[in-house]
Specification:
2 copies of one chain form a homodimer.
Chain A lengths: L34 E3 L7 E7 L3 E9 L4 H7 L68 H7 L10 E9 L3 H18 L4 H7 E6 L2 H4 L1 H8 L2 E4 L2 H12 L6 E3 L2 H8 L37 E2 L9 E6 L3 E6 L5 E7 L3 H11 L5 H9 L8 E2 H5 L13 E3 L16 H26 L4 E5 L7 H15 L4 E5 L5 H9 L8
Chain lengths: 498, 498
């Protein structure tokens, strides 16, 4: 069967008080879905940027005066959203390194009537007493959300969207230019002088690049730049985002099995029959696409409090952070074998020029031509140790034997092998830390996964395997933006009213 | 400073009751040192072979009538040892894949007068009441060794040597032919018909290939082939070999530091100042070579009981086995990122055609050109998390940025980066398992390490780092032969007297 397709909208309008993903767009930019907050009112503007080793992630808020239902119906045609320009770098939207257009609708900028209402790019604070029609998530009345987000405010705007963009850190100027144009456009649309606009804008910067590029941001944009600790932002972002209905998802055992074993329909397989933990959201399997796969992805539609948990943030490298029930956290581990490693290896070993191309290669590959399996060494299972003949004993272990001739191996097989190697390894180290700290929930964040089924399956299976089914791998639709979201969120308390 | 040189003899004659390494030969075949047992008497002959994913390791015994002191003086010129033929495969002695000649002395086979004494390739059993002049190791009177090894026997032969050979599993026929010629030669030298010789020889076969190649061995050699469980043999081999004086070694903190930081003499460095555990053998730093390096390797000259411990066997893949105080063991973990992975990757990414060439490349490389360091991301230390700017954040993380042009990167830098990546990863996973099972001693076995200083340093440092100095990485001179030695040892009890 073909890999399951995850919903990949360009903008998602989500009523955090309802439980509905209101609109879905084209599948191009699965990571850059907007989030709609109908009641979020905050008078101070800020843009958040998280500059990592390879990618710079931007989060910014645009207001929408329309109610969620209208926005949902119209989807991309809502005139109220600021249309962001296409990638400033001359590359197509498939290119991994280019910006993803978070809220592009018609392909051209359209000044919004609503933007005339106020000059600011204004996030709005949630008003707890507003009860929007929706699925009524009781969790959202829970004190936790209120404590994180709510600020009483004089001004009430009907809502807006969080938008997401990505840039290559190597082309940081593109990121700066983009933010520059955002500020510029906002000033134009609202007929305020740029100097006044700048006084109202604050850049929340996190990630390593917040330090490296502090001067660049400050001097070029001429706005206040506030540096925020990366780990703090990651955790804030995680705490926040996991409350959004249908943000968190995971693969069921059946889905893991069918993706891992596309050629078999047999259910007696290598994976242990795990006991499903009680955190599964519901029993229904989603069928998000017109051509439904055999099994869909399971979304946490009614998010419950998610702490304590382990966060495994997979970027260029990997950070592993334990988060206690009260929200305190500690970076307990990590590994240098991350997204950057896979990216780097495959860029030399295959013709792929983007990470998405590499993932596409891996989908078509057969790792057994390059990996040494248990069966290759033993001729059979090593049953005494519970090692099945199909398990990988040595990643890339067959390559040297064939005399090191690169042409002997297809880029597809190489890609699959190394994707498995990196993912399995991360899963194993993640599991060991979850076990050490007695945590059952393991969230995977970072730009590495990008909803790729084989990666998700591999991580899910690794956690299942090592934990004998007692722990669960959980994934996030906005996985790459945790830090940026956290930076954005963290300063709602700190903002002043205009 | 140049990397420390480990003693790399061709044959070591070791009196297990003394504490002296009696002779050292050329540095060519560091792995294949013979071990001399003056009192080992056993009437039944057997040869042991451990066939792994990539390499087949052979252990066999040859007798020497001379006393240890004479053998020590003469070293290679001892006529009593059976000279084994040079590699049967047409390759030089540097080639990783070829056989290493465990007991070659003069380069040509010399029938031994002592071999006429008895027809058998006979290992000898240790007689506890023999007290040879030597360093008097009290540990060897310890019941543990007796329980493992001692068998009363009518026949007393003055001694002999354990010899070691390696072959590529892909060329298993070479291994079979070698054993064939061993048996043949023994028959000729002792004037016994081959059929009679064969009746007295038993092949102890372990590793995955014991199953795969059982028929091949049995039918070609026409001797009894007994299959032994790989894990059992590994552990038996470990328990045995760690009792041999100067078999176990480790790098001191100073040595780790100086190898890791060849350009600095400063002692305030990234590595934490660990507390040395009480298992360090002695304070003296060995100076084994005529040109002593700044710091030498520390050998456990007076081995104490080594259990409980963790054994990390690094072959094509990695097995992690915990061994309890009473010798019972369990394979608790492993990783598919092993020697085969590094070997395979470097065979495609560099011009190297052997593993030793790859290691040589790595010695000259600078990983900072291909690895993304903490400093590259943050522009400085990430001190809040204790991450120094020189630490590796993403292995190979710089490669993609440079557009994936292979020519941008030297094979030396690539080799060093990937050696670090694989070794650091193994060290981390090993540490986590040692911590989980509360074990302070971590032995590294398998053919991956082969006394390579950078590898040993990386593994040692990883253990030090993660354990904050409470655990120690220990290495074995006969690291690759644990399984074969264990197979050989295991059947001393089972042998019958001739």
């Amino acid at each position: 069967m073909s890999p399951p397709s995850l919903p990949s909208p360009k903008v998602i309008h989500v009523d955090t008080r309802g439980a509905v993903i209101l609109s879905e767009e084209s599948p191009e930019t699965r990571d850059s879905r907007g989030i709609y907050f109908p009641n979020h009112i905050e008078p101070v503007s800020h843009i958040a940027v998280d500059v990592g080793g390879s990618l710079a992630k931007v989060v910014y808020f645009t207001r929408s005066p329309e109610s969620p239902s209208i926005a949902a119906t119209h989807g991309s045609s809502s005139p109220s959203d600021i249309s962001t320009p296409r990638s400033l770098s001359p590359s197509n939207s498939q290119h991994n390194g280019s910006q993803h257009n978070g809220s592009q609708h018609n392909g051209s900028p359209t000044p919004s009537s609503s933007m005339k209402r106020s000059g600011a790019l204004t996030p709005l604070v949630l008003e707890p007493h507003h009860s929007h029609a929706g699925n009524g998530i009781s969790a959202l009345d829970d004190g936790f959300l209120r404590d994180s987000l709510i600020r009483r405010s004089i001004q009430h705007f009907p809502g807006g969207s969080l938008n997401f963009e990505r840039f290559e850190t190597d082309n940081i100027q593109d990121c700066v230019d983009f933010i520059q144009s955002l500020i510029q456009r906002s000033a134009e649309v609202n007929n305020v002088p740029i100097a006044e606009m700048r006084r109202g804008v604050k850049i929340m910067a996190t990630g390593g690049g917040a330090h490296r590029f502090y001067e660049l941001f400050k001097d070029t944009l001429q706005v206040e730049v506030q540096r925020e600790d990366e780990m703090e932002c990651l955790i804030e972002g995680l705490k926040f985002i996991t409350l959004i209905p249908d943000e968190v998802y995971y693969f069921s055992d059946e889905l893991i099995h069918s993706v891992s074993n596309p050629n078999t329909s047999c259910h007696t397989c290598a994976s242990p029959k795990p006991t499903l933990p009680s955190i599964s959201a519901d029993g229904a399997l989603e069928r998000p696409s017109p051509d439904p796969p055999k099994f869909g992805v399971t979304f946490e539609s009614n998010p419950t409090p998610q702490l304590p948990c382990l966060l495994v943030n997979i970027g260029s490298g990997v950070s592993i952070i334990k988060v206690d029930e009260d929200g305190t956290f500690e970076r307990v581990s990590g590994t240098s074998l991350g997204g950057g490693t896979l990216w780097g290896l495959l860029s030399l070993l295959t013709p792929a020029t983007s990470f998405d191309e590499m993932l596409a290669f891996s989908d078509k590959g057969d790792n057994a031509t390059v990996d040494m399996l248990v069966g290759d060494i033993y001729g059979q299972d090593y049953s005494r140790l519970g090692l099945k003949s199909t398990m990988i004993a040595s990643s890339f272990g067959k390559v040297f034997r064939k005399g090191g001739n690169k042409k002997s191996f297809s880029p597809e097989d190489i890609s699959r092998s190394l994707l498995y190697a990196v993912s399995n390894n991360i899963g194993q180290i993640a599991y060991m830390n979850a076990e050490k700290y007695n945590l059952d929930r393991i969230y995977f964040g970072g730009c590495f996964i990008r909803g790729h089924a084989a990666t998700i399956t591999t991580l899910s299976y690794a956690i299942r395997f090592w934990s004998k089914g007692t722990k669960r791998a959980l994934f996030l639709r906005h996985e790459g933006f945790l830090g940026a979201i956290g930076a954005w969120i963290r300063n709602i308390d700190a903002t002043e009213e205009h």
